[in-house]
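tool_call: predict_structure(chain=1)
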Amino acid sequence: MMVLPGIMGSELADAESGRVLWGLGDARWYARAWTTGTSLAGLRVTDEERQGRTGRIVATRLLRFPAFAPLLRGFEPYTPLVAGIRRVTAHADAVAEFPYDWRLPVEHNAKRLAVAAERHLNAWRAHPGGSRQARLVLVAHSMGGLVARYFTHVLGGAAEVRTVITLGTPYHGSAKAVQILSTGRGAPLPLPRRRLRDLATTLPGLYDLLPSYRCVDEGASARRLAAGDISGIGADSELAVSALAARERLLGATAGPYTRPLVGVEQRTAQSLVFRDGTAEGREYVCEDGDDGTLNRVDRRGDGTVYRDSAWLGGAEPVHLPQTHGAISQTTETLAHVRAILTERRLGPPLGAAAIALEAPDVVAAGEPFDVAVGPQSDPASVSLHVTGAQTPQVLSRPRLLPRGTGLTARITVPAPGLYRLEAKAGGFSPVTQLVLAARAEDLADR
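tool_result:
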């Protein structure tokens, strides 16, 4: 077994000093980093790294603490997933973590995975609890699924892999990646999002998440994203060309191990794009050709980052879970899904299951109220909403939900800068959660 995290899901450190650059335990660090930008400079990909001279930064382990980035929102730690998998394996040594430098291309990390996979498989085959016939099972969240597929389908690793389990993997990319790269000309980006863009435009790994389906809405027709669209919003067209070519290789190879996708649903998700005045504007629908030749716009929703049809490739029927992208790797249902595949046990649906969507700002000002929407439920008695700290289960508040339109809304105030977790629950599914970053109002002011 190998567990692969998603983008921003590995702790990164300076190779020379050992100083942690990403994945720190202090949640307040993210408020300072995304408002001042000073702590992010070391994460920018340099010209030397683009040319293949890597090693300046090392991935040390999977996230152990919640992390945060604007637009991409929160990233939950992988500790519960790894621990849960180890409970159903023959020995804890059967499970290996594969942290990787998510700043760098999928292809680069897939080559590293090939080396790590061979090393782990050989060690397990020689282990007292192992077997000479053992093959790998890869459990991959988000971008990790692209790394896994490149390893199995492009680099020839399929023979040693029995199954790949993916959790919210954007096989066909995410419109949100384009939004992150957009300059916001005409309407300046809020400060934390501007910090993210300044970093993201240098990251080949982020370009590897560009959408490859027909996502550009041109009114009467829709088309695929082109490198010129990326240069038109002020980002790096060379990185875009390389990323889109890598996606063609990844999707073009069909021979590989059986893949079992878990797909996040019901959350409001950007699915298409409209380019206007040097900006990329997200749209919550996909463009489909109608029988009469017109363009139909259909909201398929998703996990808030990856729209539902992007998270599977056909073949195995996907399992759907109403959950956000950053939290899908650690829910009770996800762990049960992974363990059921490992043990070949059939799962029934959650009792009293009711799908729910949660919508909240990604960045707020501490001490100032903000609104949260929950749907499609309209009865406040059917939904519970809690606010906790990101690193503690202690409930800080239970905001009152009130009917509004076809759903519910609540007004929330968090007391101090830091990371907070919102949890909305209805029925038998685990709570739908989202991390929210709170910063001082003066730090969020444009400057």
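agent: The longest helix spans residues 106-125. Proceeding to next step.
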